[in-house]
Specification:
Elements (H helix, E strand, L loop, with lengths): L14 H5 L13 E8 L14 H10 L2 E4 L8 E8 L1 H12 L1
Antiparallel strand pairs: 1-3, 2-3
């Protein structure tokens, strides 16, 4: 194997993708933040957050580039913990969509 030759490597994406080895960070370029909010139980399941078959949560994640995770059960006061992780802007957008 000739190790003395040259090799060309191409990457797609912006500087953040290149810095991450071609993989975008969770929230896009910039600092990743994590925020926890409470969501009423009735808004989870088939409601505003998860939706039938996870459609709604998938849509929120794809439109905002923010990871959204719901706690599996309420904390006893009919509220569920929702963790948002991504850039500040993506977390803000995901929070706004959940609060609609």
């Amino acid at each position: 194997m000739d190790m003395g030759g040259s090799m060309q490597i191409s990457t797609l994406g912006g500087p953040g993708h290149v810095a991450a080895g071609g993989m975008p960070p969770v929230g896009g370029v910039g600092e990743v933040v994590m925020e926890t909010m409470e969501v009423p139980d009735h808004c989870v399941g088939l409601g505003n957050v998860i939706g039938r078959g996870g459609e709604q949560i998938s849509q929120i994640q794809s439109q905002t580039n923010c990871r959204v995770q719901m706690s599996p059960e309420s904390d006893g006061n009919n509220m569920r913990q929702c963790t948002l992780q991504g850039s500040k802007m993506s977390v803000d957008r995901a929070r706004a969509m959940i609060n609609e």
